[in-house]
Amino acid sequence: MVAAEPAHVALELAPGGEPLPREAALALLRRELGRVQAEVQRIFEARETQGLGAARRLSARMDRIMDAIQSYAALMVPPSKGALGLDFALVATGGYGRGVLAPHSDIDLLFLSQKEPGPRTRRLVEFMLYMLWDLGLKVGHATRSVKDCVAEAAKDLTVLTALVDARFLAGDPAPFTNFQSEFQRLRRKGGFAPFLSAKRAERAARHARYGESPFLVEPNVKEGRGGLRDLQTLYWLARYAFGVQKMPELVGPDSPGGGLLTELEARAIRRAWNFLWTLRFHLHYVTGRAEERLTFDLQPVVAARMGYTRHGAQDGTERLMKHLFLTARDVARLSRVLEPAIERAALGPPARRREGDARISAMGLAFADGRLVAAPPDRDFSHEPILMLRIMKAARDRALEIHPLAIRAMIRHHRRAEALRCDPEANALFMDLLMGKDAAKWLRLLNEVGFLQRFIPEWQRVVGLMQFDTYHVFTVDEHTIEAIGIIQQIEAGALNEVAPVATELAGQLQSRRALYVAALLHDIAKGRGGDHSELGARLAQEICPRLGMSAEETETVSWLVLHHLLVSHTAFKRDIEDPKTILDIADQVQSPERLRLLLVLTVADMRAVGPRVWNAWKATLLREVYWRVSEVLAGGMTVPERDVRVARAKEAATAELGGFAPGERDHFLSLGYPGYWLSFDAETHARHAHLIREAEATGAPLTVRSRVLADRGVTEVTVYCTDHPGLFSRISGALAVGGASIVDARIHTLTNGMALDTFWVQDSAGGAYDAPHRLARLGVLIEQALSGRLNLGAEIGKVRREPARLAAVTVPPRVVVDNHASNTHTVIEVNGRDRPGLLHDVTGAISEHGLQIASAHITTYGVRAVDVFYVKDVFGLKVENERKLAPLRLALLEALSPPTPPGGGMIASNMREAAARA
Predict the structure, then answer these.
(1) Range of the structural domain that residue 261 is part of
(2) Which ranges of 375-450 would DSSP assign to H, the alpha helix?
C-alpha cells in the first residue's frame, strides 16, 4: 500500500509554481487532518496500538501538518526584496514537545526568533495561527526571542516546565540551537533545588485541588494523584537534572545517577504510561472533548471499550477501576522512591548526619543520610522481613524518616511478609502500628508497599476495590484506613463537637484491640458476593487467631463485623420511638461494652465514607439509639404497659401547659391517640397545644410552622389541617418543589379529624433548611398543593435533576414488607433511585391502597434512597393479607421507576384523579 503523500508536498507543487488559494489550502489541510485523526482512532480502537503508541503517532502526524503550514505561510507571506528567508524556529512545547498528543489536547507552540521578531515574522505567526484556528485546533502559543524565553523561564515555573520539553519542528534551526545553549546555562545557574521545590509545591496544590487520595471513585486520570501528571513530574525532574529523554535511560550502573531505576521499575513506569494514556484516549473519543475525569457515566463505557467483562462477583466497571487504582498506587510508589533518589543523585546526600544508637542497632536498623534503613551489609528485608515492621515502629516512636532506599527495598521484598503470618513478634508490632499514633499513616504505607496484602492475604481482594455507587467516595481499602484514623481522632477528643457521645465512650472501652481489628476487617468481605457482614464475620474468625488474638477477642471482632451496620440501620430505617425497635437491638447487643464498641465503630465507619455523609441529624439519631438501648441494658427501661406510658406523657405535658385554662387543657389532652403521646416529648406537646389553640381560635383551615434545629442540622416543619387521603403525598411533593429534602416524618390524625404532621427537612447540602425567604415559600407551596392550585407533577418536573454523570449508576427498585419489626405497624421499606418527588410518588401509592402512614424515615446513600414507612390499614391494624400486599408491592415498584412523560403512567393518572376527588 502506497503511503499518502505528505500534505506540504501537495501544497508546494501548486500549479504554475504558485501557492494554492487560502481556502483551497485549508480544504486540503482539513482533509489531511481528518485523515490523520481517523487513522489514529481506527488503529487505536482496533487495538493495533495502545494509548502511548497512539499519542506518539498522532504527534508525529501533526508534525507533518505543522511543517506544511509553515512552508505554505512562507509562500503566502514572502520576504521583502533582499531580505533573508525564515528567521524563526517553530518549536513544540508541553506535551506536544514530548512527542505525545491526545485526540483533543491543546497544541503548544513557540515561535522562537534570534532577536526581537520583525514585521514579517509577526505576519507569518499571525497567518499560521489563523490557519490553525480555522482548522479547529486549540493552540497555546508564544512568540519570543531567545533572550525573552530565558528571562521568562527564570521567573515563571510554567514557562520553565514547558521549555524543558521544547522540541524543534521546522523553520530556522539556529535560534533553537542558541536557545538550547542558553537554557542549559540557565539550568546550571539556577540549579536543581529550586526547580524541585517548585514542582513539589505545584504538585501539592494540584493534589489539593483534584484529590489527595489516589483512590477517589471518580478520578482525574491526568491531574489526580497517581495520574499522568505525577508521572510527568518524575520525567521533568529526571530531564531537568540529567537531560535524559526517556525514563529507561536511568536504568543500569552506567546511567545518570548510577542506576536510579531497575528494569522492573522501568517496565512499571511504561505500563503505567501506557494504561493511563489508553484511558485518556478512550475518554476523549467517548466524550468528543478533552475530558480527563473518569466519571460514573463514563466508567461502564470505557470498561466495555477496553474489554473488561464480569469476572466472578466483579463486573467490568469494577475490574477497570481496580486496575486504575492499582496503577495509581504504582505511580505513588514510584514517586515516593524515585524522586528522592533523583534529588540525592543531583544534589548529593543531605548535609545532616546522625550516629546510630544501641537500640536502633539492636533492631537491625541504621541511619543513612539521617534516615532509617536496614543495617548494612548483612541485614535486609529479604532475609529478615520483620525489619519492615521494626523500621516503621522506630520511625513512628522517634519521629524519624524512613529512607527512600528502604521504602524501595520494602516494595521489592513485600512478598516476604508472607513468612510473618502467625509470628508473635510480627503480630505484636503490627497491632502496635494499628493502634498507635498516626495509625492511618503507617497503614497507608504498609498498603502502598504491598506488605498488608501479603501479611493478611484476605486484604488483597479489597485493594483498589471500588463500589459503583455515589455514596462511597473511596475504595474499600482507603475507606477502611480512613475509618481507623477517625477512631484515633475520636480517642484524642478531636471530634468531641460532632460526636460527643462516641468521644466519651472511647475512654471507657475495655476491648480496644477488638475495636481496631474490627475496623480493619469490617469491609474485608466486600467484592465477594453475598452479605459482606456475614462473610466478613466468618473471615474474622480465621484472621484474628493469626494475628495472635484470644478466643474472646476473636468472638468480639467477629460479632462487631457481623453487626457493624446494626446501629446505623436502626437509627435511619426504623422508628426508634417504637419500644420493639429498641428491645430488638438490645436483644442482639446484650452487653454495654458491645454497645459502646458498636457506636464508636459506626461513627468511624460513617465519617470515613465521605465528607458529606455525616451530619448533625444523623449524629442525633445515633445518640438517641445509643441512650435508649443503653437504658434497656442497664435495666432502667422495662417498657411498661402502653397505657402507663401514655399517662406519664400526658402528666408531663400537663406540667408544661401552665397558661391553659382547665377546659383548654382537657380538650388538648383528649385529642391525641396513644401513638401521638408516645412520639414526642413534653416540650413538643406544649408547642402543639399552643398551635392548635391558636388555629381553633382563628378558624384557620391550615397552619404551617417551622423551627430551625441548628444543633441537629435540620428544620422542623409542622402542618395542622383537615386530614384526608394523600395528604402526606401532597405535602412531601410541595416540600420537594421548595427544594427541601425530608429526612424524617411523624404523621398523626387527632380525634377531631385534624392531621398533625411533622417533617424534619434539610437543604441540598445536608444542613438545616434555614433561609427565611425559602421557609416562607414552603408555607405558600404547602397551601397551594393542598388547595389544588399547584400542579405538583409539573412543578416537580422543573426541579433540577442530578448531573448526567450519575445516570449510569443503577439502583434496582426493591420493596420489602416486614410485619415482625413492630408489634403495632406494618413496616414497608422501599429502595430506589433518589429523585425530586420520589417521596411524593411513593406515599401517593401507599395512600391509594387505603393505608395510613404513621411515620416515615428517609435516608439517602448517594443516589440511592432507602425510605421506611410504618403503616396501618383503615381499621388501625397491620396489613398481613397477601392479597392486599401483592398489588401494593406492584404499585410501589412502579412509583420507584423513573417518572413518565406528562399524561402517561398509571400512578400519575391515579394521583391526578385523587387530587380531583379531593
Answers:
(1) 194-347
(2) 386-398, 404-412, 424-435, 439-449
